[in-house]
Design a protein that fits this description.
The chain is α/β, with parallel strands linked by helices. It has helices at 14-28, 41-59, 80-100, 123-133, 160-169, 187-204, 208-211, 230-239, 245-249, 262-271, 302-306, 313-327, 331-337, and strands spanning 3-9, 63-68, 105-107, 109-110, 138-140, 173-175, 217-219, 253-256, 277-278, 290-291, 296-297. It is globular. Bound molecules: zinc ion.
Length: 344
């Protein structure tokens, strides 16, 4: 089975996007508060079929671990109440999609984070999504301020109540920033990659995983700059008298394959053990076009794993399937519940 652990709902019907615009406008003028978006199943199908579903079928991937559009989480927009309302609507929409296409998608939830508000604020929504909607993971934003990095690092006790709940629920987090309101950063080009790299460096300098030996994080977008600079990070850890990275982090930290070219995947798979890599494409998302050098979509990441001469067949199976089942403890049961089977 080919499990794509990183997909977002980026093919929303226009009414859904319009609702969010009105919701934000109503934050400063409550007379403009919009009614919840009225969207039919057909309107959802109409946008999803020629996008994520088409690419899943064409590329021969079986199921996508699917969450709301990350750049639209907008934790820095409005206040905690607005974040909670928007998050609930987004998570309910993912649940609806999973019900419409149970063979294609498994849900992961957005969290109602807000700058300056303690993360335990997210626990009720996390529990609702896991227990009622079948979410197998959550997206955790290390920078709810949207590019200004005002929160304590992910390793600070500030985050611990949320981690305690994640451990009890057996829920891993994908470290995922949202859109940036800092004009110095491009959302998907630099802010995302910064978030990934920063989270890894935070983990390296802390004893978080001594406190939470079973807590798991997926660092997406190929782990940001981490695999390319693996020597730098190993060296920094050594200078700091930290344990070797493998021992320190690789029981808890995983990387996805959202690196959009073969040389990038080759670099990653040479330095990161196959046990710590999860297949992902993040389609339809950051990069939508076709690579003129290969004639294939940049985000058709299955090609880079299939085409790897570095990975063994056993490694490829780990990356496509078994690592995801290990990192997302609720996944196997959810696959069975939704009747998902490998296509080939
Ligand atoms: Zn993403």
């Amino acid at each position: 089975m080919i499990i794509d652990c990183h997909g977002h709902y980026t093919s929303e019907p226009p009414a859904f996007i319009e609702f969010r615009k009105q919701q934000i406008a109503a934050f400063t003028d409550s007379s403009k508060a919009p009614a919840p978006p009225q969207i039919s199943d057909d309107q959802i199908r109409e946008k999803l079929e020629p996008a994520q579903l088409k690419f899943q079928r064409e590329r021969g991937t079986d199921v996508t671990i699917f969450s709301p559009r990350a750049s639209a989480m907008g934790h820095h927009v409005g206040d905690a109440k607005l974040s909670a309302e928007w998050t609930r609507i987004c998570n309910d929409m993912i649940h609806r999609i999973v019900n419409l296409y149970p063979k294609n998608f498994i849900g992961v939830c957005q969290l109602p984070q807000t700058p300056g508000v303690p993360p335990e604020n997210c626990i009720p929504e996390l529990e609702r999504c896991v227990k009622e909607l079948g979410s197998v993971g959550c997206n955790l934003n290390p920078d709810p301020s949207g590019g200004y990095w005002k929160e304590p690092p992910l390793t600070d006790k500030w985050w611990y109540p949320l981690y305690e709940k994640m451990v009890v629920l057996e829920i891993p987090a994908m470290v995922h920033v949202t859109g940036t309101c800092n004009p110095a950063f491009h959302t998907t080009g630099s802010h995302y990659i910064n978030g990934d790299t920063t989270a890894f460096m935070q983990f390296l300098t802390s004893d978080l995983f001594k406190d939470f030996p079973t807590l798991k994080f997926v660092i997406p977008h190929g782990g940001g700059a981490v695999p390319y600079h693996w020597g730098r990070y190993r060296g920094i850890a050594q200078d700091m008298k930290r344990p070797p990275l493998k021992e320190l982090l690789l029981h808890n930290v995983y990387f996805d394959t959202c690196v959009y070219h073969q040389p990038g995947i080759d670099c990653m798979t040479k330095v990161i053990p196959a046990d710590n890599i999860l297949f992902a494409s993040e389609m339809v998302g950051a990069v939508k076009g076709i690579d003129p050098e290969t004639g294939h979509y940049f985000d058709d990441t299955r090609r880079y794993i299939d085409g790897s001469t570095i990975l063994s067949a056993e490694d490829k199976k780990k990356i496509f399937e078994t690592n995801a089942l290990k990192v997302y403890p609720r996944l196997a049961k959810q696959i069975q519940k939704q009747g998902i089977a490998a296509s080939a």
